[in-house]
Amino acid sequence: MSDAQVRGGGYIPTLIAGCLGVFVAQVAYSLPASVLGTIQLDLGISGSQLTWVSASFAAAMVIFELTFGVVGDIFGRKQLLLGGLGLLILGEVITLAGASNVHALWTGQAIAGIGAGALYPISLTMIAALAPDAVTRARSIALWAGFLSIGAAVSPIAAGSLAENGHWKDSFWIPVALAVVAIIVALKATNSSAPEGRTLDLPGQVTLVIGLLALVWALTEGSQGGYGQRDIVVGFVIAAVFLAAFVAIELRTASPLVHLNLFANRSFAITGIVAIIGMFAYLAICFSMTMFLGTVIHIGAVYIGLLFLVIQIPALLLVPLVAKLIHSVSPQWVLTLGFLCIGAAGFWASRFDAHSFLDAHGAPHDAAFVKFIVPMILNGIGFALTVGSITAVAINSVPLRLAGMASATTNLLRDFGFALGPVLGGAIYNSIANRKLDAGLDAALDKAGQQGFTVLGQPLDPHVPTESVMGALHGLAQGGGSVAVNSVPVLTDPKTGKPFVDMPFALHDLAFSSLSHAFNVTFLAAAICALGSAVLCVVGLAGAKSASAEAVELGTDVLHEVAGVAEDVAPV
C-alpha cells in the first residue's frame, strides 16, 4: 500500500517495530567498540586486521544505505525491515561460528553491516509514513532517535562486561536475541511503500560499491606495509576510477542515488563537507580511545564501555536544547561550537602518554581510564550540537521539494564520515607506529649486533648466527606490526624477573612507545579536522538563518518541524 493509503493505520505496532529495528542496528554497530583490545589479545592479529573488524561493518552499512531506501519505497518497507533483521542475524551467527578466525569475523560483520544499512533508513521511514499527523510524527521521530541513542550507550557496556569475564565472543549473541524479538514484533507492523517515480540506480550503486571498497581496502592495508606498494597504488587507482564513474553516472541518470546538483548551493556544500570531516573527527576520537586503552594499554573492556556511556550522555540530555538552538540561533554558531568541543577533546587526548596509564610494575592501571572522562564528555557535547544541526542546515538550504533528497544525501555523507573514523584513523596510527617501530628496530638491531645478544645476561650461543636472530626479530616486527608486537607477552625468569631474551623485551617497549606516539598524532589529526570544520562553518555559513526564520520566509512550518526534531540523530 502507498503512504497515502496506510497513514494512521497500524501506527503503534509499526512505531514499536521501527524503534526496535534501529535499536538492534545500533547495538550491533556499537558492540565491537569496547572489546577490540580483547579480540586483539585473543586472536593475536595486526593493527590493520583489527581495524577491519569495525571497518567491514561500517563500510557495508554506508555503501548500501541509500539504495535500501529506494528498495523499501518500491517493494515495501516492512519486508525490507524483516530482511535487514534477517541479514543482521546471519552476520552475527557467522561471527559467532568463526570468532576464532579473523576472516570469518570480517565476513560476519560485513553481512551484519548490510543488514544495518537497511534498518537505519527503513525503520525511520516506515514510522514517518504511518504517523497520523505532524505532531505525532515529530514525537515518533524523537522516540526513534532516543532508542538509537540508548542502543549506542548500552551496547559497549554489555559487551565489555562479558569480555571482562572471558566471554567476548558471547557478546555477539546480544544483537541476535534482540533481532529475533524485533522480527516477532515487526510481523504485526503495517507495510507501506511509495513507488511513484522511484527506480533503482544500479550503475550508480555498482560503481559506488567498487569505488568505496577499493578506497577502504587501500587505506587500511596500506597502513601495515606502506602506501607505496604496487597493489595499494592499484587499489587507490581503482577507487578513483570508479568514484569518478559514479559522479558521471549520477549527473546523467534520471533517478540518481545522490542529486549532485544540490552541491551548487553553498550552504549545502559546506554542510556536506563538514558532515564528512567533522564526523570523521568525532568517531576517530572514539575509535582511537578504544584502541589506545584496549590494544595498547590493555585496560579492561568494561571501563571502555563506561566511556562510551559518558559519550552518549550529552546526546541523550541535549537533544531538546539543540532543537531549540537550531530554531532560534543561526546554525553557523551551533555547528561552530560543536566542532570546537570535538577539537578540544582531540587536543586533550593527544597529550596523554601511554606510560602514565601503567602502574609501578608496568601493568595496566584500570583506574587511569578516568583521564578520558572529560575529553569524552566534550566529544559527546560536540556530537550532540553538530549532528542534528548539519541536517537542519541541509534541509533549510534547498527548495522544499528537495528536502527529502537533501536529508538522505546528508545522511550518506555523515555516515561516510563515521566509516572513515576507524578506517582513516586506523590508517594513521598503524602507519605511524609501524614506521617508528621499523626505524627504532633498525637502530636497536645494529647496536645489539655490535654488542651481541644475551640470554639472562649471558652471551648467546656462538653457534647461533647473529644474523638469524636479527632476521627473526625483524620478521616478527614487520609481519605483526606494532599492535601485535605490543601484545606479545614478555617471558621472564620467575626467579629473577629478568627477561629470558633481552632484545624482545626492548622490542616490546619500542612497540609500546611507538603506539603511544602514533595515537597522539591520530588524536591531533582528528582535532585539526574538527577545528577545520569549525572554520568552514564560520566562513561558509555566514548569513545562515535559524530554522524559524527560514520557515517564516517560506510560509510553511514543514521545515521548522523537520529541523526541530533533529530526525536523523545517529550516535555511535
TrEMBL record:
It holds the Pfam family MFS_1. It comes from the Bacteria. Keywords: Membrane, Transmembrane, Transmembrane helix, Transport. The keyword Transport applies. The keyword Transport applies. Residues 14-545 form the Major facilitator superfamily (MFS) profile domain. The chain crosses the membrane at residues 12-29, 49-68, 80-100, 106-129, 141-160, 172-190, 202-220, 232-251, 263-285, 297-321, 333-352, 372-395, 521-544. It is found in: Cell membrane. It is a multi-pass membrane protein. This is MFS transporter. The lineage of its organism: Bacteria, Bacillati, Actinomycetota, Actinomycetes, Propionibacteriales.
